[in-house]
Amino acid sequence: MNISLGITKTIHDWLFSVMPEGLASITEMVLIAAVYLGVFAVFGLYLVLLERKVAAWFQLRMGPNRVGFKGLLQTLADALKLVSKELTGTEKADKFLYNLAPYFVIISALMALAVFPFTQEFQAFDINIGIFFLIAISSIGVIGILLGGWSSNNKFALIGAMRSGVQTISYELSVGLSLLTMVLITGSLQLSEIVEVQKNGWLIVQGHIPAVIAFMIFMIAGTAETNRAPFDMVEAESELGAGFHTEYSGMKFAYFFLAEFINMFIISAIATTMFFGGWLSPFGITESLPWLGVFWFLGKTLVIVILMMWFRWTFPRLRIDQLLTLEWKYLLPINLVNIVVMAFIVWQNLIIQL
Amino acid sequence: MSYFSNIYNGIKSLLTGMSVTGKVFLNARKGTITQQYPENRETLKMFDRFRGEVVMPHDEDNEHRCTGCQKCEIACPNGSIEIIWDRVVNPETGKKKKEIDQHIYHLGLCTMCSLCIEACPTDAIVWAQNYENSVYDRSFLTKVLNQPGSKLMDGVED
Q1: Range with the lowest mean pLDDT among A38-42, A195-199, A286-290?
Q2: Which one of B3, B9, B14, B15 makes the best mutation probe of the A interface by having the most chain A beta carbons within 10 Å?
Q3: Are A54 and B25 in contact (CB < 8 Å)?
């Protein structure tokens, strides 16, 4: 029954049998990159559709339902429109940085996808500092936002980019510290090993109270990391037009748009791996079918994505001082106390093992 | 100590808000208020308070309730109502009485402010709920509200 796992192994063996070793590994890397690009570009597009549908349901509307069956092709039509649009820009923009910015954002988003274990042994890049890599990569995207805002030669874009800088630097801390709380239980930064540890119960169960607090902090900080409402002061349609991507159009705008949704997927995927057992099925009901792990992983991730959309359509946008108060006066101290509590629990072996 | 009560109240109010939107989300199928207009134009009914255009209802004997008092014409801020009236001798009593000839309504000038309908002492004009009011020539927007040959209903003036 090793359907998906078999395919990757077969391709791997076949490549190494027809080519010299160096060329084969390069071909393999290119293949994996192409597959990830293709799959996640389409996946990101459908997250846009999901967002629009969920928004419609929250507001008692219907959402897109004209293009294709129940509107399923709407998002492809939008992508096609964006691809065919003219690339415009402001006259005195810093052309080099202006063109570079979208690639920073999209590449940092796609790089983070490499380390996720979709199911047992179905992982592109299993490094032993996986979670550290994720935290480091997820903050590179803000450089792209800062560059885009700075080089656009537009006041609103600059204000949006500066807000993004403030916000990401602040909330980086909470994301890192809340994940550190969970690393105390797992004792490893390697994502595949973190999932292995959870075979005795998901980490949110094993770590009980401090784990729930860490999860709440992670969700708040993660929403802020992805610049989504209620922390979307970077874009803030009513105040800044569209913030840092005001001056972008066509495909470059599409990169920013896609990166936002892939980042949302990444935050949800981190939460799934760190708190809800990654690709493990609940109570091990499908343990004999490891390829079903993809289903469980994506299912749990989508539930958390919908939770983030629920935040977006419930809470009003924060002011910049409220945002910083929330981080520095509340989340950070709670997080530090939470780490000490978790360390005590691990030391006294009070974790719940199923 | 207000620090901890702030945290408690904050989380509580966030969860209250999420429960409200969550209930809406779960009932989204039943509660959808979107009208898919061109498809459902046969069944689409506008709500009672909708202001489509001013009409003068007539009963089955072709009788209306307008006495020709011109209060609506005076009340209208843009002059979209014009009343052409005459004094007619009543054959039974022999008295001269005011009677409308044409109640002219310019839909193109009307801002749907409803002042004429509030001013009318006999409820002769009301709002209609029709909403497809676009025409190819603006002369079609000038309408005569009383039907030809209609007359005043008995007992309205008492």
Answers
A1: A286-290
A2: B14
A3: yes
